[in-house]
Design goal:
With 383 residues, the protein is mostly helical. 55% of the residues lie in helices and 4% in strands. The strands form two sheets. A three-stranded antiparallel beta sheet has the order 3-4-5, with no helix packed on it. The chain has a two-stranded antiparallel ribbon with strand order 1-2. Strand 4 and strand 5 form a beta hairpin. The radius of gyration is 19 Å and the shape is globular.
Length: 383
């Protein structure tokens, strides 16, 4: 997707090219420090190996996703080599089956599926399909939803569905395309319908919906990683923006694009008030201020995707808003120092009742990289 095609001025290409150059230098330095390690959140300025702590952790694919995006953009074989380290290590996650949940999409779309899309590596095809079948196995045919998390201390989360799932079901759309098996499509679409009808309200989004697993009845909603019930967790908003846009890309069902736009308009109405800086939750107390740059980066990718799908006269709203978000991140929340790990600063895993906690989180970096490459027309659809 060329930026001129999106209706922006050529100066944006110059800016994005400069950002990409800084990203490549930083990521190449991180890559050599990490070797086969899998990053998550730096400790004292440097990454530790999340793979040795928990190989089933949901973020373990994003590092490889960044490398595959850069491999596609540059052709540099080093990115391919280092990306495969994560892919091979995640075979241990298949063995440790009990730790896996619906986030297998995040884990294997960015590793095996990305590898297969770009190289047609047959072992990667098998890994991707294995993950897709694990996701299929979490489907509740009565409630028409994919169960999110595994049991907690109480032993019961069989009816829990979270908005993040809208990104994971892209794994099923991919499996549908490579196998021509309609089961994957049916599960992805019916799950998307359930989420659309229950998670997205007035444009704001519930993080968690809890259904009766025996009847499919909606029992309650929860704030989850946001401030509380009825609040508006910004990263959940971003998952909805991008996730429903992707379901439209894979199905051409207009309802999904319309839902993505509703979530986008709500997000933009809130982020514009804060100079394109995203709060952790848009319906939380004003004091103390808590921000989440990862939500902004994810939303920017979703807005750019919507911009590709809407008519010309609508496009600029979404593209210009994404550019404003990305420039704000570049100017205020990006660390390009090659001696430290983590690029996008001031991310928040969740709303913290004890006050702000700002981290560098690997998925914020991934979505920032994806967005910059998309502006330059050098990305590929990893989802």
């Amino acid at each position: 997707m060329q930026i001129t095609k999106l209706g922006t001025v050529p100066d944006e290409n110059v800016w994005a090219t400069n950002v990409l150059s800084k990203l490549q230098k930083k990521i190449s330095a991180e890559m050599r420090r990490l070797s086969t390690d899998i990053p998550y959140i730096p400790v004292n300025g440097h990454y530790e190996d999340e793979g040795s702590k928990d190989i089933t952790w949901w973020t373990n694919g994003f590092w490889a996703g960044m490398l595959w995006q850069l491999y596609h953009a540059t052709g540099d074989k080093d990115y391919e080599t280092y990306a495969r380290f994560s892919e091979k290590r995640l075979d241990d996650a298949f063995t440790n089956f009990m730790g896996l949940d619906h986030d297998v999409g995040f884990m294997w779309l960015h590793t095996a599926v990305a590898d297969y899309r770009l190289t047609k590596h047959e072992r990667s095809l098998a890994r991707g399909l294995h993950a897709a079948n694990l996701l299929n196995g979490r489907y509740n045919p009565i409630g028409k939803f994919i169960k999110a998390w595994n049991p907690d201390e109480s032993g019961d989360r069989n009816g829990w569905v979270i908005i993040d799932s809208m990104m994971n079901i892209s794994l099923l759309y991919w499996a549908r395309d490579v196998t021509n098996d309609p089961r994957y499509d049916y599960i992805a679409r019916t799950h998307a319908d359930t989420v659309m009808q229950n998670h997205v309200t007035d444009g704001s989004v519930n993080h968690i919906c809890i259904f009766d697993p025996k009847t499919g009845e909606l029992l309650e909603t929860r704030g989850g990683q946001g401030y509380g019930v009825g609040s508006s967790w910004s990263r959940g908003q971003a998952w909805a923006i991008y996730g429903f846009a992707l379901s439209y890309v894979h199905t051409h069902d207009q309802r999904y694009l319309d839902t993505a736009k509703r979530a986008a308009h709500y997000f933009l109405a809130n982020i514009e008030r804060n100079d394109y800086e995203s709060l952790v939750d848009f319906r939380a107390p004003k004091d103390p201020i808590q921000i989440d740059t990862s939500a902004a980066a994810i939303a920017a990718c979703g807005l750019l995707e919507i911009g590709k799908q809407v008519p010309d006269l609508e496009r600029q709203l979404y593209v210009d808003s994404a550019l404003k978000i990305l420039k704000h991140l570049d100017e205020n929340n990006a660390d390009y120092n090659v001696a430290t790990d983590g690029i996008i600063t001031d991310g928040s895993v969740q709303y913290n009742q004890n006050g702000p906690k700002r981290d560098r989180i690997v998925y914020a970096d991934y979505f920032f990289v994806e967005a910059i490459l998309r502006i330059l027309g050098k990305d590929f659809l990893i989802w």
